[in-house]
Amino acid sequence: MPSLKEIKQRINSVTSTRQVTSAMKMVSAAKLQKTQQWILNARPYSDELDKILLSLASRTLRDEHPLLKKIDEEDVKSVAIIVVTADKGLCGAFNMNIIRKAEEVIRKNKGKKIELICVGKKGKKYFEKKGHTIREEYINFFNKLEFEHSRDIMNIVTTSFLKGKYDKTIIIFNEFKSAIQQNIVEKQLLPLSEFEESDEKFLASYLFEPEESKLLDELIKKHLDVQIWRVLLESSSAEQGARMIAMDAATDSAGEMIADLTLEYNHKRQDNITKEIIEVSSAAEAL
């Protein structure tokens, strides 16, 4: 049986832990609010850019631009996989869910040349230990997330794709739905596949200057910039939401543990007092 001193030390330790988890929960809630606002600000620009690019892709021949060319799965020999995890833990199953999905995609592309671009320290450390080829790594920037980060990633993947280093580029990330819900998304980034369907209402909406073919290349780069930026924002929001929920659960568990330990402490103290009273009474009777 633990002594009163040991129980008291455990209560103090769990109380300190609860203070930390409660503070982490509040910090995550503040960061979540900030990244949510960024997502809301980015969506209108992204949506309008997609409409313009859809119109351009419909007006021009897709096969004339290498980033829009369709490719048969049988012709894919090399794949780049962008894995977006967090830099830190304490966010439930957030990181492991992404890692499991990435492993599933790697198994699905068995026999092909696969290189990873790891965004986030957790994914980088895991796949490094597993011996996978890591082409690039982007770590420790989620606390100071900037649009330039997405541009750096875009430049690497597009340059490598245009040089023929990769036949396909896939990105895997957690899509933010709410603080308690995140969806794991596997998306083909290159070649672009979301502009295959045309809509007549888009075709008559824009007058392009200069001509369409000259605009297409620049708009594709901007589209990829924005897509990767949205992925980073979605992942950051999902991470903060997962950490907020995990820290909330940890704070509640700490509170329950403190209540149990306090009850145990009081019972132990009461037993000791009762034992002392009995000893005094017995000594008095003996005298």
What is the helix fraction of residues, given as a range?
Answer: 55-70%
Give the rounded overall mean pLDDT: 85
Query: Could you give a short account of the major beta sheet?
Result: 5 strands, mixed
The shape is elongated
The total of helices stands at 6
> What is the subunit arrangement here?
single chain
List SSEs in N-to-C order: HEHEHEHEEHH
Radius of gyration: 28 Å
End-to-end separation in angstroms reads: 32 Å
At the first level of CATH, the class of the largest domain is Alpha Beta
How many runs of DSSP E, i.e. beta strands? 5
Strand content: 5-15%
* Uncertain regions spanning at least 5 consecutive residues: 200-204
Explain briefly what this protein structure is.
The chain has 287 residues and is an alpha/beta fold.
Write up what this structure looks like.
The chain is of the alpha/beta class and 287 residues long. The chain contains six helices and five strands; from the N terminus they run H-E-H-E-H-E-H-E-E-H-H. Helix 1 (4-59) runs antiparallel to helix 6. The longest helix is centred in the last third of the chain and has 75 residues, at 212-286. A five-stranded mixed β-sheet has the order 3-2-1-4-5. The protein folds into two domains: 4-18 and 246-276, no CATH class; 22-245, Pyruvate Kinase, Chain: A, domain 1 (3-Layer(aba) Sandwich), CATH 3.40.1380.10.
